[in-house]
Fold:
Amino acid sequence: MVLEAIPPAAIPYVQGLLQQHELQLKLTPKRHTKHGDYRKLPKGGHLITLNQEANPHRFLITLIHELAHYFAFSKFGYRIKPHGKEWKSTYKKLMLPLLHPTIFPPTVLQLLARHMKNPKASTDTDFDLVMALAATESNAATTYVFQLEEGAVFKIYNGKVFLKGKKRRKRFECVERDTKKIYLISPHAEVVPLEG
Structure:
């Protein structure tokens, strides 16, 4: 089931990684706060949960990200930082064989290779990579916060309604209409535009 969700050219490599280790993989409905998760289970097993994802490239990146947690903790112990130098070096090592045009489209491959020089805790912090991945999907009807004019009204996945404000360094300052609280919203957050 998991292998069916990644690009076909990546299957032999990922299958090899999974066969070497006893890992439980579980698909979950889409979570808006994370793409995947790794944890050691109380009885000694290991669980990776992954959002059901239509985009095979994003799914593969998330799977390798979570496998890197497992491998880093297994090798260096559980006292390391979750996204510290041990995880980064493991993630790079696991991803390197996948940086190939038979697996990723050229636009994604170039940005992913750049991202992997110093990977962050989430690919979502890399705006260009997120947008390149989104461009490989067939959903042209998606609207992102960065596409809206300042002052535009929009709704997010949980039904909250916001007024778009000015851009700070990377995120947009948006005011929730009901509570008047200010939130910093990612430029690539998927939204539904509303009439003022």
Summary: The chain has a mean pLDDT of 92. The chain has two domains: 3-135, 143-194.
